[in-house]
Amino acid sequence: MAPNRVSPDIQAGRLPADQYADNFDDLHEPLDRHEAVVEADRCYFCYDAPCQTACPTSIDIPMFIRQISTGNANGAARTIFDQNILGGMCARVCPTETLCEEVCVREVAEGKPVKIGLLQRYATDHFLETAEQHPYERAAPTGKSVAIVGAGPAGLSCAHALARHGHDVTIFEAREKAGGLNEHGIAAYKTTENFAQREVDFITGIGGIAIRNGMALGRDVTLDDLVAGHDAVFLGMGLPGVNDLGLEGDDADNCIDAVAYIEKLRQTDDLSALPVGRNIVVIGGGMTAIDVAVQTKLLGAETVTICYRRGPEQMNASQYEQEVAQTHGVTIRHWLQPQALVRNDDGAVTGITLEYTAMNGKLSGTGETVTLDADQVFKAIGQKPVEGLFGGVSLDLSGGRIFTDDDRRTSHDKVWAGGDCIAGGEDLTVVAVEDGKIAAASIHKRLTG
Amino acid sequence: MADLHTNFLGVSSPNPFWLASAPPTDKQYNVERAFEAGWGGVVWKTLGEAGPPVVNVNGPRYGAIWGPDRRLLGLNNIELITDRDLEVNLREIETVKKNWPDRAMIVSLMVPCEEEPWKNILASVEQTGADAVELNFGCPHGMSERGMGSAVGQVPEYIEMVARWCKQHSDLPVIVKLTPNITDIRKPAEAAKRGGADAVSLINTINSIVSVDLDSYSPVPSIDGKGSHGGYCGPAVKPIALSMVSEIARHPETHGMPISGIGGIQTWRDAAEYIALGCGTVQVCTAAMTYGFKIVQEMIAGLEAWMDEKGHATIEDFRGMAVPNVTDWQYLNLNYVTKARINQDLCISCGRCHIACEDTSHQAITNMVDGVRKFEVIDEECVGCNLCVNVCPVDDCITMEQISGTDPRTGKPIDPDYGNWTEHPNNPSVQREAAE
């Protein structure tokens, strides 16, 4: 070890000041008008299009692409918003490579799908930049009020649809800003130029939606009160808890919850002021693992290693996302599970010992270990519900998450739920949007039926 | 190696690729660049009478339609004949012909429909050493308002009259360039032949407005808010031109008359198609104006390669080979029964064949088989129309296959022998004969 090496080596400002903006710029350059028209021409306008079937929100993809090709970008955006009012964010964060683009017939034919995500971004950006008014008009007020918990994708989607029907919506949001994971949990280079907030403004632009920030369920407001004070309640608070490694030293300052770190990164005004380790180990195999790994690399970490206890096929992060990480210089190591944190006399983590794993019927350690230097260890091994949020209201759960039927109704007559907090979902923005949409339709039916 | 050399009306050129009378052939500078690039000949941009030359608009002269990547598909123009002095043009023609004696030098002409102007200009052209003249009876814009261009080409009597003057007053071979802006292209071709013309060239440009500006409501190209129809050319017009060429090539009155083919020729393949329909040379403009003169090298190399592959030693070996296969609808074999066949290994399941057939045609292609997305032809419904082939985005995925035995659609046996409409029992005239 070099004599001047501080341990653990965690510093802000590892990069020249002008490097940060470049590093955290759009991961994928948006298409310009001509590029969009040329790309749109690659779409075959399929009948019963596989892309549309694969989209959790069933956007009429061939139609919006055709509208782009004829110069009607705002009409294309309207086609998108008809099915998915968060179409702008989904264009940025959807794993299109495992949804619409995976089944694009041009993927089948030549391994090069139509760039549906980028085209969707082109249309929705065009709308947000040029349209002078909200695309939808509110129906006459119904006098009904709906409480929504969480201003993330599920809650916003639900709120918009209900407001459009003329209901009054109040969203109770624990954080100081709306947007949920779009604002706090997704890599910065996927949603540049404050897009999450611009999208919140766009959605609430329909009117009839009040957002009350700093109002956490179970802390500042109870479900009992919401049920009593509103005609219906929609729960879309996500998964506020995070899983721990379950190792001694887990609570060290430099053994960090990846979600919290990303949130800090997303909310900071000055990326160069954000401390980052020289050698980073990320534990996990999902999108949060990828997002924290790539972003710490972009903050100037020297080595970033993701360790995942199973193989590449089992990672929740798609093959494409894994490649994005690797392209950015992140090393992904498979078949390694955390065994012990290496700590110095001050209790700070300086490394992590991992045990090799193998599938012998079930996943088990082989006994062989490896120890990696780590100035920071990031925990990205999943989020979990927090218990005791519902006060006196009883809701059926499934695997710790809220149980809902096909209409996203919970076991309580006046409560619906959607997004990451319900059982059976895929923890994707686009799925949360669809949950909110379905719940809104069901709530509307109930309130007006 | 195939020999591309052509002899058209006794005019020799090293290959059949000529530049059509148009902006690329308006000056010595351009034409010599073309010859350096390899073009076999040029038709010099149309000369008018001596005296003050015509003037062009000073705003845009061209309009276009494009594919999505701005690939130019069709071009229109409102440019007139040469706006340079006649003397300058004649001097340059003479110089270029001297510099490039092995290339064809044809001079396009357009003067008022009177004998003297034609006599005068022919005499001037003869002195340049040019190989032939082409009478511009085709331009549909501007000059036609002054009784020239297509105003002549639309009146067979005028064509015959002027062609006759030209043959009387000059020994130069005479090519009559025809306008497509007419109902039956055979009539002006017959007139040209009656007047003694040696050949026809076609097509000149088609009356066109390429688009309307939806902000100013002006046709494009817009000259100070107004537009006038122009002449349309480029790849989009090729099918129209091929049909007109074929009409002249197979018409008994004009069959065998030399034809120089024009209209949307971009590649060697386009050229080969024109030649197969009887053309002795082809003329190109839009492709050169889009990509520059170098494209002729692809045309030469491609045509040579194809001729070698087919075993055609010279242009004459395949010229006109498609002409006997152009016929009237009534003679098409109604006992030729085809069904679409979809190659499931190539199919990418876009469903375009299905929806085209389902919505607009014969409901003869499935979209679901045993609950699985699958596109199969239903022979009982398929009329063999070929629409599915044309809308399929994959090469050779759907093909038309001739069947024999019983047609599943009609349930009737297929007559193995040729049979056409003239003998078909549903033909009213056949019914009448049977009754008599």
From TrEMBL, chain A:
Record domain Dihydroprymidine dehydrogenase: where: 22-130
Heme recorded as keyword: no
Residue ranges of domain FAD/NAD(P)-binding in the record: 145-436
EC id: 1.3.1.1
Subunit-structure text: Heterotetramer of 2 PreA and 2 PreT subunits.
Keywords: Oxidoreductase
Name of the featured protein: dihydrouracil dehydrogenase (NAD(+))
Matches recorded under SUPFAM superfamilies: alpha-helical ferredoxin, Nucleotide-binding domain
Organism listed in the record: Oceaniradius stylonematis
Reactions performed catalytically: 5,6-dihydrouracil + NAD(+) = uracil + NADH + H(+); 5,6-dihydrothymine + NAD(+) = thymine + NADH + H(+)
GO MF annotation terms: dihydropyrimidine dehydrogenase (NAD+) activity; iron-sulfur cluster binding
Function recorded in the entry: Involved in pyrimidine base degradation. Catalyzes physiologically the reduction of uracil to 5,6-dihydrouracil (DHU) by using NADH as a specific cosubstrate. It also catalyzes the reverse reaction and the reduction of thymine to 5,6-dihydrothymine (DHT).
Gene3D superfamilies: Alpha-helical ferredoxin, FAD/NAD(P)-binding domain
InterPro entries with a match to the protein in the record: DPD_II (IPR028261), FAD/NAD-bd_sf (IPR036188), FAD/NAD-binding_dom (IPR023753), Helical_ferredxn (IPR009051)
Cited PANTHER family: DIHYDROPYRIMIDINE DEHYDROGENASE [NADP(+)]
Pfam families per record: Fer4_20, Pyr_redox_2
TrEMBL record, chain B:
A family per Pfam: DHO_dh
Broad EC category: oxidoreductase
Similarity field: Belongs to the dihydropyrimidine dehydrogenase family.
Keyword Iron-sulfur in annotation: yes
GO molecular function: dihydropyrimidine dehydrogenase (NAD+) activity; iron-sulfur cluster binding; metal ion binding
NCBIfam families: PRK08318.1 (NF006183)
Catalysed reactions, as listed in the record: 5,6-dihydrothymine + NAD(+) = thymine + NADH + H(+); 5,6-dihydrouracil + NAD(+) = uracil + NADH + H(+)
Entry function: Involved in pyrimidine base degradation. Catalyzes physiologically the reduction of uracil to 5,6-dihydrouracil (DHU) by using NADH as a specific cosubstrate. It also catalyzes the reverse reaction and the reduction of thymine to 5,6-dihydrothymine (DHT).
Top-level lineage group: Bacteria
Organism placement in taxonomy: Bacteria, Pseudomonadati, Pseudomonadota, Alphaproteobacteria, Hyphomicrobiales
Subunit structure: Heterotetramer of 2 PreA and 2 PreT subunits.
Gene that produces this protein: preA
UniProt-listed InterPro entries: 4Fe4S_Fe-S-bd, 4Fe4S_Fe_S_CS, Aldolase_TIM, Dihydroorotate_DH_cat
Protein name as catalogued: dihydrouracil dehydrogenase (NAD(+))
Domain called 4Fe-4S ferredoxin-type: residue spans: 338-371, 373-403
GO cellular component: cytoplasm
